[in-house]
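name: query_chain
kind: protein
chains: 1
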Amino acid sequence: MYNRLLSQRQKIKRNKAFAYLGIMTSFIGCKQAAKDVKDNLIQVENYLSSSEHVQKTETYVSIAPDNFITIDVDVPTTGRYEVEVMGSSKNGRIWIEDYINNTDDRTYNITGDIGFDHDNSFHSSYRFGSPLSQGSHPFKIHAKNDTVKIDWIKLKPIIVHDSTYEVVEQKMEGDQWELVWSDEFDGSGLPDTSKWSYNIGNWGWGNNELQYYTAFDKKTARLENGNLIIQAHQNESDSTWTSARLTTQGKYGFKYGKIEFRAKVPHDRGTWAAGWLLGSNYKDELSWPYCGEIDVLECVGYEINDTTYAGLNHATCHTRKYYFKQGNQIGSDTTLNNMTDSFHTYAVEWHPDVIYGLVDGKRYYTYDKNADDLEWPFSKPQDIILNLAIGGGWGGARGLDPNMKSPEYILDYVRVYDLK
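structure:
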């Protein structure tokens, strides 16, 4: 193994990445990575197998583009990880694939592309927030664009998964909705940490998204004038983006009821605003879509008119039987006027056997596939998530507006009701 110290340039680069993420000494909603959980250092020359164009030396492995090596990794605890790669390449990149033997014909990219500094010297590059579940994992390390030399890979837990939460189960018999939980976003400063935690990182979030999600950063998530403002920012020095993703994970899980988001969404091409629910039993990418997902508010900027701000909202349920990576998801959309300057109320009514989507009180979506757990994982709690993504497979399908400046996703409230 090469015993090189990071140059000052790499140290600055790493510290800058941590500043983007807003990583602090503790994370609300998830336990701080325990000090006794050791970093996992993987010597890649001990790989199990490889494709054809791979060369091995005593200290590193050279992988030609469109080739890979397979390594076995023991993940010490379930949580979010920093992935550090010691490598070099002129123009190449790598990405890491998890669950390579899965039975669903899925490709689980848990890092997005990891590049190097184009000078062929060995140095560290990073990805943050990759979700990993405790246990043995065979990984594939893929190279693309150019030959990549890799010395080692280190996995460091940033936060340990915390599944402790209060389940709020709504009654669904009656004829009147009654408020049981809400955040009205009053006050100023950071969001209420008794209700919200932060997802952090820049691993692509399963959709090749571009942003770092930061934590405890008023620049990307703050209370102001009775609203929650989630705002994306582009770094002037290297054009990277930051934003925020809030979740009730580790705080509250919800089962049934009416869930409402009153919001304004950005119209900029390349934005992807969302208010949605994800199964509370999510641990890593293998959990999805078995855990279920209910998209209540989902808007991409390129579908919103730049002048009138009229556009589309999408409601969708993703399950193992029906989800977008199979191309058979069950969803619907509705046209709205002035989505950016005026608030609209986005909601679902989640019953034990059917889910309805509504905007401004008008029903436009129905999901009623409930034959078994593969169609209906929605008999278990779900967490609420609010986020503003930049780019990605859908949000970035038509590129990014080069003139986009710090788009805002503004929420007046989140409310949960039961039926009495």
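note: Residues 1-34 have pLDDT under 50 and may be disordered.
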